[in-house]
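Supplementary material to the annual report.
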Amino acid sequence: MAEQETDISLLETLDHLLDRGVVIAGEAVISIGDVDLLYLGLSIVLANVDAIIRTSNKRR
Amino acid sequence: MLITNEEEALRQQLSFTESTIPERISADPEALENGLARLVLSIIELVRRLLEKQALRRMDGGNLTEEEIERLGTSLMKLEEKMTEMKAAFGLEDDDLNLSLGPIKTLE
Amino acid sequence: MKSIAIGMHLRAEDVQPLAKAVSASNLIVSAIDVDDDQPLSDRDLMLRVADIRAHLLERATFIAVRYGFTFRSTSEAEGKIGSNAPRWRKLLEENRTRVELTLKVPAASPLPKPDRHAFNSGADYMRALHAAKNAAGVDEVFKRAAGQHIASLCVENRWLTRDSSSVELAGLIERDRVPSLAAAGESLKRACPDVPFLLSAPWPLEVFADVDHE
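Predicted assembly:
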């Protein structure tokens, strides 16, 4: 990706990659109170945070 | 193609508070315990928020039975209660764990 | 070796050689292979996949698969696709010439989160949470301007409240109208100079492929 990509652009890209799109069934379904919630990848959650934090550090 | 308006305001909405996931964990035992506690609780808080978000998405779908809605709500209430207890146990405030990411974000 | 699913497509030619094209359930799944122990939460990997997605979109419209889904065999892929195949295929055939756009705007007055202590039942709390999320609103003037400048270019559009602090307009737009979005964005800026917003395009089918938002 282009070096000069702004952090907003990066966040937008990551948002579309990580928080949208169809969910394929049967993967790491977390149940709460017996109701199956959708895909939740904990490693992806942490990746979200890490990517965003690294972006903000870059900005400083 | 990406167009933004009032980028400064957008950035402020995006203002990242100090990373609540400590990048370095001190070797001092007390600080270590506190640092680890913050790390663990931050992660649990993230998971809690994501579960809440997912529950809201399910509500959007409008296909849940009354019983399912009750279970979702009760579970979320219990999770919040647990978080409150754990924060109190470690002497951590909401601010210590708060990842404020604004409108353009992948969490919350 | 595991394969990270990227998107659902109609034809292998739409995918190769940018990614691996796996034939499954009468669809083509685009994917890249990584080592079994490759962590998915790798920023560079995510950016690589995002980059591939952008190039795939240049070729042809596809349905985006949320990042993080992997499979090790065609039968595993088919199992995961399940009964979605006919619906996705229909979506792809109907929207060959279209892509998505996103217009995001912070909520005008984000509402405080309901206090769980104020509720006796889980269902009441859940409904209150949901109502609070959906109450996030956008300035009416902005909404009208967005309708006039952006939604007017779309084949279909939907206002969504993804969370309590932001609101979003998702639009399905013909590819050949995407170049006119830049000017439309500028018009929107002029119409509402004080409203922070973000307009981005093109994106593969995401919101309009997602069952939750039907």
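Chain C is about 35% helix and 25% strand.
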